[in-house]
Structures are given as structure tokens and as C-alpha cells.
Amino acid sequence: MHRYIQSYINHAKCNAYKIFSISCVDAPERIDERATLGVISNRRNKRWMLEQVRGVCNAHVSEQILHVSEEIVSMLNKTAQKALNGAKQG
User: Fold this and answer.
1) Contact predicate 40/20, CB 8 Å
2) Taking a C-beta distance cutoff of 8 angstroms, is the pair 30, 63 a contact?
3) What is the pLDDT of residues 44-82, one digit of tens each?
4) N or C end: fewer C-beta atoms under 10 angstroms in the chain?
């Protein structure tokens, strides 16, 4: 994850890229899964898009991690839309 983050650090500083660390524990089976999520800004339509989500050593992720990643992107877009609407009104 360290090299991955360094390659996007300038984009993140400009608020064009967001990086998240995701950790899920499946309670019944106690399976711990970690992943890194990269979300990129589409400046044309002012929306965030899932750019990549990878597990440890770039492994594929479970459906649960993918679902959580998509929920994060959805929340970012809802927040951005509210801010945009507020800026238009004020």
C-alpha cells in the first residue's frame, strides 16, 4: 500500500484522488480482510468514481469489500452533491 499511495500523493493533495484503507471482519467466521480503495474525481460531472480496490499484495477482494467500496463512493457523491447544491443556493 505504501508504494501505491506515493504514486497518487500529488493527486490526493489536489483533492483529485482519495485513498481509503478498508478492513472487514466477518463475525461468524472471524475472517479479517483488508483492502485499499482508490477513488478518482471526474471533474467534468463533479462525481467520484471507484478507480481501484485491491487486497493485500494486490489480491482480488471479496464481494463484501467491493460492496463497502461502492457504498463509500456513493456517500462521497451524495456529500459532493449536497455541497454543490448549497453553493448554488448561497
Assistant:
1) no
2) no
3) 888 999 999 999 889 999 999 999 999 999 999 999 888
4) C
Backbone angles phi and psi of 61, in degrees to 5: -110, 165
How many residues are recorded in the chain?
A: 90
Q: How far apart are CA 36 and CA 10, in angstroms?
A: 17
Average pLDDT over residues 7-19: 79
What's the CA angle centered on 18, arms 37 and 82, to 5 degrees? 115
Instruction: Return d(Cα 18, Cα 39) in angstroms, integer.
Output: 5
Could you report the per-residue pLDDT of 24-37, keeping only the tens digit for each?
876 566 568 899 99
What is the three-state SS of 21-55? EEEEEECCCCEEEEEEEEEEEECCCCEEEEEEEEE
By the 8 A CB rule, do 53 and 59 touch? no
